[in-house]
Amino acid sequence: MAHRALSILIHSDTKVGKSTFGNTAPAPRLILDAEAAYRFLPGTKVFWDPMTQAPPEYDGAWETCVAIIRTYGHLIRAYEWLNSGRHPFVSVVIDSISEVQTKCKDDLANDGRMTIQLWGDLLSQMEKLIRGFRDLTEHPVRPLQAVVITSMTQMRDGKYRPYVQGQLQVKMPYFLDVIGYMYVDTVPNIDPTQPPHKMRRLLVVPHVQFEAGERVQGRLGEIVDNPTVPLMLDMVFGSETKEN
Fold this sequence. Notes:
Blueprint (H helix, E strand, L loop, with lengths): L5 E7 L5 H5 L6 E5 L11 E3 L16 E5 L3 H13 L6 E5 L1 H12 L7 H19 L11 E11 L2 E4 L5 H4 L6 E10 L9 E7 L9 E2 L8 E3 L3 H9 L2 H4 L1
Parallel strand pairs: 1-6, 1-8, 2-4, 2-5, 3-4, 5-6
Antiparallel strand pairs: 6-7, 8-9, 8-10, 9-11
Helix pairs in contact: 3-4
């Protein structure tokens, strides 16, 4: 039986809810936070420095472990711990890949000057990183249920696409199960006497204006309303209650 797991990349305009979506991933979850967004997320948190500590043990008293990604090296060390299988996490969130790539670029070129060779090194390192995190969903010892990667968005060639630099723009969307564009829509109220309300929506099929797509055989439909990671897992694999 296939492992119940998804790798998801979402992009959107600022302050639409990417970090909030990541925070819905099944607990205990690890948020690799390169943008300091954790401060505004609900839930009980613990903190972990992958450079100096082993991952915290899960005692049921917390939902989210936050690792502040100050340098690209912090992310690599966190991945090494995850790949070892010696951790309690069910889900991992990278928030955001746009900022992570900038940190990797800073490590490669301290003076900010990128040569052709350094651009090649950046692509190689980022490809390896994204594919490595994706493959944690099939880890032989401790497979993850969800790997969520958030990204800024950018208009490029007439379409809004995940914001990364160089050839990673082309290659990254091919690596993951679901690419979604998140937006806020105004929808009618069920009660016609009440005004319309705002709703987060996630576009997951190809669109002329927004990069999106999936390889889950259409099980998510075209748009996921009020998207959460558990909802998307249930839509793709069936509810855990039914499976049990």
